[in-house]
Amino acid sequence: MTEISFSRAVNTALRDAMTQDDQVVVFGEDVADAGGVFKVTRGLLDEFGDSRVRDTPISEATIASMGVGAAMSGLKPIVEIMFMDFIALSMDAIVNQAAKARFMFGGRSHVPMVIRTPHGGGLSAGPQHSQCLEAWFAHIPGLKVVCPASPADAYGLLRSAISDPDPVIFVEHKGMYAARGAVDTQITLPLGRAEVAREGIDVTIVTYGAAVKSSLDAAEALAREGIDVEVINLRTLQPWDTETVLASLKKTHRLVIAHEAVQAFGVGAEIAAWAVSEAFDELDAPVLREAAPFMPVPFAGSLEREYNVSAERISNAVREVTR
Fold first, then answer.
1. Which domain holds residue 290?
2. Exposed, middle or buried by CB within 10 Å (0-12, 13-18, 19+), for 89?
3. Among 60, 134, 195, 304, which one carries the catalytic annotation?
4. Is 189 domain-assigned?
C-alpha cells in the first residue's frame, strides 16, 4: 500500500498496463510532450516512446474515431478527451461506432477502448469546462461508464477498464487530481460492483465521484446528531450495482441520491425510478435527490459554490427523510 495522489494513481495504472501489454497505446491532445493538461500522462512518452504515446490534432472527433479504428485493428487504445465538455464533438464515433460494433458484427469484432475524460466544477472553469455529462453515456447500450472516487478507485478501476473487451468511458473529477489516498497496485476493482464506503442503519446515500467525499462528510456530521448513514460509492454507473443498493435499503429503508451532475434526467433519476419499481416495499420515506440545478455551471466562485452539491445540502436531505 502506497499513499499517492489521484493523478499519480491514474498515471501508475497507465504505466503498469503499458508495461504488461505492448498493445496498450495512449493518445490525445497534449498527452505526450506536455504530459497532459493536468499532467496525468507525464513521463509516459519518455518511457514508452512516440509509437505508443502520441499527441493528436485538436479534434475530438478524430481522437475518438482513431481510437475505434485502433481498437478494431487489435490495439488497446486509451484516448483522452481533455475536458468532458468537448466529448460532444466525438459523439458519433462513441455512440454510433464504438458502442455498436460488437452487435453489428455479430460478436466477431469488438472495441477494447478506454476514453478518459475529466469532469466537474469547483475550479471556476466556467460552463464549457465543468459539466458532468456521464448520464449521456450511461444511456447508450454497449458502453460502460466508470467514475472513481479515490486514488484506490482510480487505479483499480482503470486497470479493469483497460482489460475490458468493450468501450469504457472513464470519468475523472479534475478537482480530485491532488487528493491523496492509499493504493494497492496488486489489486484491481471489478466493473459493476459498488463499495460500501461507510456502514449505517438509518439512511442510505448512493453517490459517486467527488460527491462521495461530500456524502461521507455529511455522514460524519449527522452521526453527531444520532443519524447513522450508510454511504454507497457506486464506482461504476453502467452497469450499476443494484444488489448492493438493495441490500442497504433492506437495512435503512430510506434513500438519498447525491451527484454533481444536473438533477434532471440524471443518474439519480434512474436510481430513484429503480427504487420505486423494484424496492418500493423497503421504502419508509420518499426518495430524495441532491444534485445540481438545471442551469449551466457558473464561472463566479460564489455562484459555483451555491451550484455544487455540498455536505450541508446532503445533510439536509438526510434530515428530511428521517423526520
1. 195-321
2. middle
3. 60
4. no
